[in-house]
């Protein structure tokens, strides 16, 4: 599987939720393992590996029903903080891929990826503004927008997986 397709499939597993007895049948940690498998095959993957690793650790902790219940009862800002590694991963990934597309003179792909990067960054900051303004009623709309942007990223990753600028093999390490 191509690296971008692996990352996209991992994000699909992260986004989808199928609860049985409180547990997610599509565990987010499995999705983040797929993401890591794809990221490790990108050129200079260190920052992305770090962010995906942080998201994996958070996903492992949050997968348990007791943790989910505690999050549901806690301050909305805690749920925002828990999702921050995932959002930062998406921002950095879009930035990296937009640079690759731009270098390959694929202006349309670069524009879509930059737009997705900006939308992710704006929607990552939007809850902080809602908290500051005391407008918790805005949070469902912000989170719906954030989900739509992650879906856009997934579509872009699948669509660009076969582009000539998209990495398709593990980087060769000097001996």
Task: Please explain how this structure is put together.
The chain has 175 residues and is mostly helical. The protein has one domain. It is 73% helix and 2% strand. The protein has seven helices and two strands, in the order H-E-E-H-H-H-H-H-H. It has a two-stranded antiparallel ribbon. A hairpin with a 2-residue loop joins strand 1 and strand 2 (23-24).
Blueprint of the fold:
Blueprint: H1 3-15, E1 19-20, E2 23-24, H2 28-39, H3 46-62, H4 65-73, H5 76-103, H6 107-133, H7 139-160
Antiparallel strand pairs: 1-2
Helix pairs in contact: 1-2, 1-7, 2-3, 3-5, 5-6, 6-7
Overall pLDDT metric:
91
Element-by-element helix/strand order: HEEHHHHHH
Share of helical residues: over 70%
Taking all Cα atoms into account, the compactness measure Rg is: 17 Å
Question: How far apart are the termini?
Answer: 25 Å
Strand content: under 5%
In the sheet with the most strands, the strands line up as 1-2
Shape field: globular
- Number of individual domains: 1
Low-pLDDT segments, ≥5 res:
none
Number of beta-strand segments:
2
The largest pleated sheet is described as: 2 strands, antiparallel
The helix/strand class is: mainly alpha
- DSSP summary: helix tally: 7
Tag the structure with descriptive keywords:
single chain, 175 residues, mainly alpha, two-stranded antiparallel ribbon, 2 strands
């Amino acid at each position: 599987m191509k690296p971008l397709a692996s990352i996209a499939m991992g994000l699909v597993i992260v986004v989808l939720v199928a609860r049985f007895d409180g547990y997610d049948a599509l565990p987010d940690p499995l999705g983040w393992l797929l993401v890591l498998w794809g990221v490790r095959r990108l050129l200079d993957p260190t920052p992305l590996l770090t962010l995906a690793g942080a998201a994996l650790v958070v996903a492992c902790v949050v997968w348990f029903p007791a943790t989910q219940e505690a999050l549901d009862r806690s301050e909305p800002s805690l749920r925002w903080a828990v999702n921050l590694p995932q959002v930062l991963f998406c921002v950095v990934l879009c930035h990296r891929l937009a640079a690759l597309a731009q270098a390959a003179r694929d202006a349309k792909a670069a524009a879509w990826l930059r737009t997705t990067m900006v939308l992710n960054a704006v929607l990552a900051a939007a809850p902080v503004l809602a908290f500051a303004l005391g407008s918790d009623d805005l949070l469902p709309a912000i989170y719906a927008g954030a989900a739509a942007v992650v879906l856009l990223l997934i579509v872009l990753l699948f669509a660009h997986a076969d582009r000539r600028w998209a990495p398709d093999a593990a980087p060769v390490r000097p001996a």
